[in-house]
Amino acid sequence: MSEVVRREDLLRHLRDLSTGTYEGQVSRAEKEEIYRKAVELLTPVVQSVLEEANCLFLDGTGQVRVIGPKNDGQGGLETRFELTWPKQRTAQVMRGPRAPLRPIIIKAHYGRGFLHPHLSGSSGGNWPLQILNAEDAERQRTILAAIVEMELHERIFETDWHILPISRQWQQDKS
To answer: Origin, by domain of life (predicted)?
Structure first.
């Protein structure tokens, strides 16, 4: 049976919280080493999920970019996975403060003072980043897909549904 709810990840996260460790490691340097390896293992899975979204919703016009791991400017580490597309790069937020429309973002972040790193989007919560091997990385696919769906919906909400290239096809199919 496939686990949709990531039981192992949450149990490992609880163990970390109860022991003050990250995957058994105590020092920040050792934890950062695990974080960097986790990002390395996670990167192809994230790229695959973003490429799938690119094909399904952006008609293949998108570009995937990996930024980091790098200093987050506050003494922590962050890796950003971004999916941009032509219409998004020129759009402005219409609902909320005027600003350029953000790309689809998945972050693996390990904030200064945090016990361990997390996965997130640009908004919408944090998930435990419990990755020691390729199987662990692959298990994140459901969370990554949920983050991408949330991010896509946020970009629609911030502008309108025409922001996605697939909307042209949907309109044609509707006619």
So the answer is: Bacteria
